[in-house]
Amino acid sequence: MSIESTLQERGNNACELCTSSENLSVYAVLPKAGDNSDDCVLVCEKCDAELNSSDTLDVTHWRCLNDSMWSQVPAVQVLAWQQLKLLTNQGETWAQDLLDMMYLEEETTSWAESGLAHRNAGGDAEHIDSNGDRLSAGDNVYLIKDLPVKGGGFTAKQGTTVRGISLTNNPEHIEGRVNGQKIVILTKFVKKV
Predict the structure, then answer these.
(1) From CA 48, how far away is CA 45, in angstroms rounded?
(2) In sequence order, which ranges of the chain are alpha helices (DSSP H)?
(3) pLDDT tens by residue, 1-39
(4) 107 and 72 Cβ atoms separated by less than 8 Å
(5) Which residues, 6+ apart, have CB-to-CB distance to 179 below 8 Å?
(6) What is the C-alpha to C-alpha distance for residues 154 and 192, in angstroms, rounded to an integer?
(7) Number of other residues whose CB lies within 10 A of the CB of residue 119
(8) Backbone dihedral region of 92: left (phi > 0), alpha (psi from -120 to 50 degrees) or beta?
(9) Residues with Cβ < 8 Å from 154, sequence gap 6 or more?
(10) Residue 76 in 3-state DSSP?
């Protein structure tokens, strides 16, 4: 079963943060690579945009964390903690109140803190292909080697063109569709067209 299928089943085909069922995608929770479903969360387009944005957060949208912070899934807990921490830094007292109520295991807290540091550092980091060229959202790239797609049951072949890539919050990863499936690709294995 693919990571996306596993997450859809786990999240009942809804965003694991806000419960929207619109335009869902897999979000790898930093600093994990997203190699398995335990390191990922199923998010809607709105949550994905907010998670990848360095701009001011939509405070109203993130009130959903009042419910999702109680998830038993560590990856969801990590994202909830990170967003609440960012909202607290913006002066949102309700977010601090929720953080005060939240309990995370020591390992999960460590993951959340290191991931937040990666996200903050990654805001200015650029996505660079194997030739050192800067990648932007919407660019077309091609694969420079065969890549087995974990959970996808196929291998993305060398030379395959991936059109209209999306950037992630990790400068070493991009997202794109291969064989109709949205996958995460390491930037060191692509060249800009």
Answers:
(1) 5
(2) 3-10, 45-51, 65-68, 74-89, 93-101, 106-122
(3) 789 999 999 999 999 999 999 999 999 998 887 788 999
(4) no
(5) 152, 154, 156
(6) 23
(7) 19
(8) beta
(9) 179
(10) helix
| pLDDT tens digits, 87-120 | 988 889 999 999 999 999 999 999 988 887 776 6
Identity at 128, one-letter amino acid code: I
Nearest-CA neighbor of 140 among 185, 105, 110, 77?
185
**Mean pLDDT over the full length of the chain:** 88
pTM of the model as a whole: 0.63
Q: Is the peptide bond before 148 cis (omega within 30 degrees of 0)?
A: no
Q: What is the pLDDT at residue 168?
A: 79
Q: How far apart, in whole angstroms, are the C-alpha atoms of residue 21 and residue 15?
A: 6
Tokens (6 digits) for 169: 């919050």
Compute the distance between CA of residue 58 and CA of residue 69 in angstroms, rounded to an integer: 17
Cβ atoms within 10 Å, residue 137: 12
Whose tokens are 């072949």? That residue is: 157
Report residue 38: phi and psi, to 5°: -70, -20
Tell whether the model's pLDDT for residue 59 goes beyond 70. yes
Name the token pair of 17: 């943060």
Q: What tens digit of pLDDT does each residue of 131-182 get?
A: 888 888 889 999 999 999 887 889 999 999 999 998 877 778 898 999 888 8
